Amino acid sequence: MALHEKNLPFDSKLVNLIKTEQYQSWFLYLNPRGEVPVLQDTGKIIPDSGRIIDYLEDNFSNGDTPRLIPMDQGSDVRQRVIHFRQVLQKVPEGMLTTGAMLNQHLLQDPKIPFIKPVRKALAEAEKNAGMQLRKIAEKNPDAREVLLKKAEDREEKYKKMSVEKNFREVLEQVHVILDEVEAELAKHTGDKEDWWLCSIRFTIADVELAVLLMRISQLGLEHIFWSGGKRPFIEKYYEKVKLRDSFKKTAPGTIMLLKTIFMAQAPIVVGVVATLALVVGGIVIAKK
Length: 288
Hints:
Strand content: under 5%
Largest sheet: 2 strands, antiparallel
Structural class: mainly alpha
């Protein structure tokens, strides 16, 4: 989404996470943690969405490539953008997604890519993730320690998120963050009625918020967080951001649905957190 907002041309490579392509040697060379997204710019390799966006801001912010952290609207706007970016980055999206897969009775109307066969496959994948990661670690000695630690983390997460009470605690963390967002959006009256989250311009804070709201909607958690009058300003914001070109180019459509159905029929040995980046992370990698 950030790449589209900055009008940067790029080639994308969709990594088949359900077939564990992110643990093949070529990808572990790019990121030993086996996580997407990864950006390759000539000889530079940058993993992690946050680091990628910082790299884009530092190296591509002139002419037709607008800044996502505005430098010409005063320190108040800039600080507000940075603040909300940091606040939204605290959302435990991995826990939110995993918990949703393991507590599906709490979901209402899940959307692409979380159709029923995918949800079933991902729930089973989380159960077996630790074991599978240990097998992969033994086949990849250079990434062995990283993958073994990741296996422990995944097992702990599965154990925790299998308990509904713990998942509800994650939901409460998201509530607290969205309360602050709702309060900020409620201030946008009068000459600020057309503002996004922090400014008349679309910023990195909006990218963070748009992706979070997309994920909540995909999981079928809108009824918990904003629909039915719970947070009317967030609901209005989400309807507005869905019309934005960068959102349309980022959100999964019919082609992604077909790919998701196809991949869901394959043996599943990968978990939910990785799937997050497949759909919303802007996967930009080059395969030798």
